[in-house]
Design brief:
By secondary structure, the chain is an alpha/beta fold. The protein contains 23 helices and 20 strands. It is globular, with a radius of gyration of 24 Å.
Amino acid sequence: MKKASDLFIECLEEEGVEYIFGVPGEENLDFLDSLSRSKKIKLILTRHEQGAGFMAATYGRHTGKTGVCLATLGPGATNFVTAAAYAQLGGMPMMMITGQKPIKKSKQGRFQILDVVAMMGPITKYTHQMASSDNIPSRVREAFRLAEEEKPGAVHIELPEDIADEHTESLPLKRSHSRRPTADVKSIREAVKALENAKAPVLVIGAGANRTMTSRMLLQFIEKTGIPFLTTQLGKGVIDERHPKFLGCAALSAGDFVHRAVEASDCIVNIGHDVIEKPPFFMQPGGPTVIHVSTKTAEVDPVYFPGIEVIGDIANAIWQMKEDIVPNGGWSFDHMLAYRKAEVEHTAPLAADTRFPIFPPHLVQQVRDAMPDDGIICLDNGVYKIWFARGYTAYRPNTVLLDNALATMGAGLPSAMMSAMVYPDRKVMAICGDGGFMMNSQEMETAVRLGLNLTVLILNDSSYGMIRWKQANMGFKDWGLTYGNPDFVKYAESYGAHGHRVESAAHLKELLAHTRDTPGVHLIDCPVDYSENDQILNIDIKKLSKEL
């Protein structure tokens, strides 16, 4: 007979788990004791459950394997809610394990007891309370299966104290090997026929294409056909954005140069699209032909109702289409590529503006120049996310980690920490607003304790800048969104990190190079000038692209 908590750890080892992130509580102590004897799994103690959840989700995003996090009952479990939603909407495989009071006999009344399983129901793919130690292997295996299959997401298991302390003869289950089905030949033929009959087709690369490693097949398809492509924010980097057929990233909702290019198309191929990200076009009856290529059928929405669906492994579907298609001599892409050229010409002088406080387009260019090809930037949430999505040229998949699904503040630092752990030889930078950084800034201690090498770039405007931008755009007075900040340099140093403050555009360039090349955790306090956000993003771009 084996103790249930020991069996649970063995099941996690069988699944290939490397880390468990979390803040344990009294109700997890059996589990913690069993984990202390594991030779394969390392506990990463964080300073808040949300940080643990964001790290677990980012592990899933990078590896495709389920990231695991641990919390106690009640307040520990409620602190997981945002991270669960982040993983669920963002398509990141993650398992949450939470403790609970004994379920067979109460000893403390209702103290700290919430119905955590019911709470997790709407924001996970699977949630289950362990009521018998004999079922641990099957429930753990099922949770991992569901977390990892398309579309990946969050799962939750509650392990009550008395179940963790039971003894059982059950044994871990082996992982099953499964392959995604390939797309039906007739659907491929229909999609190819629509492309061959089109005058100006375009490819839109979304989140699903970034998850399922489609880069090679997509590049071959683009090279053979010459069809231009754009990305959603979650599709950045699938194809190197220095490619001559790249049209841009749909960072704004409408009216950007890239949207005009899409409007010029009569056949749109959406690859790995998810309605979590609003499509970068508005469908209308009698509009362009829309082809949906994904592992799952399209969720119908007022803004998304494709006419042709190709369902199966995305890379294989693109390969089949490439083999079948005969490039059409009548295709014309010049007008689409002219929009991209105009966007580049509009951005160049902005990126060269060396004012201080730092101008966002210049900041984006400086960060791109400082980061190597395989460097990873992890964005928190704020108005700078739009500047980076539009202006930061992604060279490789999963090198721009931004969250355009839940779009939560507070995830930038934990996702960068996880990136630095998964890829210790690559350069990693968290890019946070002062608001988002302060939501999980305590994880700086975790980063220092783990000996990570990363840079945290804080864009400091002493306000919730994204909402301030929207407030200005809606014609409301500037009110209710400004605050004071700590001295970020001293704050970093108090954790044992290195603090730096930008004093000019030239100094920013020096600091980005210094922090990139110097080991340890660095924080850069960078004052930013957001005064022209509304003018450029909401007025100039729309006017210039419309004139074209």
